[in-house]
């Protein structure tokens, strides 16, 4: 399976990345993609500063992709995660999955995002419009629950 | 071994990385956290809630009972908030 994992400061073109998974192929029947954006939290957030563990970030995402590949018959995966300063409205993360059928593509894309949130070594620092709103984003129990449900799910197509 | 600190663990420790040479009695990640906590106020603050700090050995997530022998790189960081 073709897998692309990129951790980068620069923005990306989600349309081109998703289309790239199907281009020139005749076996792909579905590409599901997800884009995560920076929110302004009701006008209080000026920017996010994303810190990451270079090296481990790429390796951990690749391990997560490997687990998705073991569960569904995937034909291609692309994951991009940005770091550095990101303003409201800008893209942070991208996941796209190609498969023969939509079920595997949707499910794998969702699992990849759930696992990325709890396992990929990135940390968000909030830069506030005023100082009172600043600080490190805390991990959410909801994200742990979203990731944990894949441990119980029936594997395979 | 090389130690790396990220996010608020880095801020509290006051540095992003350093070389560590723990004594042989420090066998696990948890032992290392206890040993680091005694090195000063910043370390004590960073590790005051040991369960709130995650660790990786050679770039792989590690639990507090994981053995550190042979590891070249250890990292400490808060629960992850990417995505």
The Cα radius of gyration of chain B reads 12 Å
Secondary structure class of chain A reads alpha+beta
CATH architecture of chain B: Roll
Radius of gyration of chain A, taken over Cα atoms and rounded to an integer in Å? 16 Å
What fold name stands as the CATH topology of chain A? Aldehyde Oxidoreductase, domain 3
Number of domains of chain B: 1
Strand content of chain A: 25-35%
Instruction: Please identify which CATH superfamily of chain B we are dealing with.
Output: Beta-grasp domain
- Name the quaternary structure: heterodimer
CATH superfamily of chain A: Molybdopterin biosynthesis MoaE subunit
Spans where pLDDT lies below 50 across 5 or more residues of chain A: none
Q: Taking all residues together, what is the mean pLDDT of chain A?
A: 93
Report what the structure shows:
The complex is a heterodimer of chains A (157) and B (83). Chain A is α+β, with helices and mostly antiparallel strands and 157 residues long. Chain A has one domain: Aldehyde Oxidoreductase, domain 3, CATH 3.90.1170.40. Chain A has four helices and eight strands, in the order E-H-E-E-H-E-E-E-H-E-E-H. In chain A, strand 7 (122-128) and strand 8 form a beta hairpin. In chain A, helix 2 runs antiparallel to helix 3 (102-119) and helix 3 (102-119) crosses helix 4 (141-152). Chain A starts with a strand and ends in a 5-residue tail after the last helix. By secondary structure, chain B is an alpha+beta fold. Chain B has a single domain, classed as Beta-grasp domain (Ubiquitin-like (UB roll)). Chain B is 27% helix and 23% strand. Chain B is built from three helices and five strands. The mean pLDDT of chain B is 96. The interface between A and B is medium-sized, with 28 and 16 residues.
Please describe the topology of this protein.
The complex is a heterodimer of chains A (157) and B (83).
Chain A: E1 2-8, H1 14-20, E2 30-37, E3 45-52, H2 56-71, E4 74-82, E5 84-86, E6 91-99, H3 102-119, E7 122-128, E8 135-136, H4 141-152
Parallel strand pairs in A: 1-4
Antiparallel strand pairs in A: 2-6, 3-5, 3-7, 4-6, 7-8
Helix pairs in contact in A: 2-3, 3-4
Chain B: E1 2-5, H1 7-13, E2 17-19, H2 29-37, H3 41-46, E3 54-57, E4 60-62, E5 73-77
Parallel strand pairs in B: 1-5
Antiparallel strand pairs in B: 1-2, 3-4, 3-5
């Amino acid at each position: 399976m073709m897998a692309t994992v990129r951790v980068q400061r620069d923005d990306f073109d989600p349309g081109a990345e998703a289309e790239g998974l199907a281009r020139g192929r005749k076996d792909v029947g579905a590409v599901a993609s997800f884009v995560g954006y920076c929110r302004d939290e009701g006008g209080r957030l000026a920017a996010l500063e994303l810190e990451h563990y270079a090296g481990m970030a790429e390796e951990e995402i690749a391990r997560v992709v490997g687990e998705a590949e073991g569960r569904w018959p995937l034909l291609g995966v692309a994951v991009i995660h940005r770091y550095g300063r990101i303003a409201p409205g800008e893209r942070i993360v991208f996941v796209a999955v190609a498969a023969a059928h939509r079920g595997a593509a949707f499910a794998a894309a969702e699992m990849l995002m759930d696992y990325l949130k709890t396992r990929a070594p990135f940390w968000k620092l909030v830069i506030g419009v005023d100082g009172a709103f600043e600080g490190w984003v805390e991990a959410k129990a909801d994200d742990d629950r979203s990731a944990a449900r894949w441990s119980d799910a029936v594997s395979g197509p | 071994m090389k130690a790396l600190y990220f996010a608020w663990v880095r801020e509290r420790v006051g540095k992003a990385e350093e070389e560590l040479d723990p004594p042989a009695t420090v066998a696990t990640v948890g032992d290392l956290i206890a040993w680091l906590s005694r090195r000063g106020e910043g370390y004590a603050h960073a590790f005051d809630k040991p369960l709130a700090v995650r660790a990786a050995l050679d770039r792989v997530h590690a639990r507090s009972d994981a053995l550190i022998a042979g590891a070249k790189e250890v990292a400490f960081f808060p629960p992850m908030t990417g995505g």
